[in-house]
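Intended use. Records like the one below are meant for learning the mapping from a protein sequence to its folded structure. Do not use them to infer anything beyond what is encoded.
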Amino acid sequence: MKKLLAAPVKMSLPESENQLYQNMLKIISDISLNLLAIKTADIIDEIPGDFLTWCQTMHLICNKHLNYQLLDDEQLPKVAKLLKLLEQAISVCQLKMLRITPWPIFVASVEQFQQREIWLEQHNFLQYLAELRSQAFSQMIAEDQLVFFGKHTAKHDPSVYQFDVEHFTGFRNAKTYLATVVHNGEKIEAMLEAIPLEGEVTFQHYQNFVNQYVAMFEQQAEPEKAPLFPATRLLALRRPDTFVSLNSTKADVLSIAFAINKLSNQDFLAYWHDVVTTYQQMPWWKLATNSSKSEQFIFAHRAILLDLFWFSEENAHQQTNYYKALNKATPASSKSTVVRRNGKSLESVTAMVDRVLADEEIPAFVKANRDAIIKQVMGGKKIEEVISLMRSIFG
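Structure written out for the chain above:
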């Protein structure tokens, strides 16, 4: 363990990574006896030779092999802080490599990340988004608009929304932002249309979006400063090949990894000139091709997929709102009252049923009973339950 803890000293770390390591050492000194009790030979075959692998190894040890029963109460927060530092360092290292990563390696890295269980949800999200993107925003049902805003609610029926709406940076706690955007569907539509769905996105396109976005906040009865980070999500969902969605934590990591100035939540010019322009000069973005089916998907989402390079827990799929909603035990007798409490409108239920019935695999006799399905869902049943029952009776 002593050799493992000291390994980064021999790695000639750059200043940013060395600072992270020094911050870790301050905490490690407080739990060193607990760490030294771990037999590393049973966990790893050799001492890591690079900082990324070292951080991943230390995270594994602290997360799964540290004896928490032997820790004092005051040591527990320190271990949690150490884990956060390791996660930050892993994100920095993975993102930093992109500065010189060619397109084939970028594709291989993304495909490796896609082996995580959470990818199924993320893929469903992006597929659903592709269908939404061509629709007029002001005409979308409230649940679909919240997809763009990054706020998951109980109204997002897991039989239709087979993903967590908050993937790719959610903003459920951005109360001022949400209070503004949910009542301005037409303004949101106009600013999104400032960004073309195809072809090059220029600075002028971006500036047109920003001007409308900032004006929306300034023209309120009680003017507010327009927040940058929620805007990056709107941009990324509009053009996932061009924009990356950020929050303050992700922005800090990205600033370290890409060696750019720290990004503030009001600096719209810096987002374009320091962030977007920076990664658009990297080989994986600038020289991207789309010769295979896998490459075509990654090519069309190559900016928003930067999200995969931030640290993710192995069980991240079990922490999503979709997973929790899908596995929530609800007594049969209370299903109808839950639906009414959630306030599903006829409009939203109709839209969700129509999406499900649009599937080519749904039998014609089921589609013919559309009105009956809508009535059953309004009464409290789930769409898949109603369709399953029809199949069992008439199939």
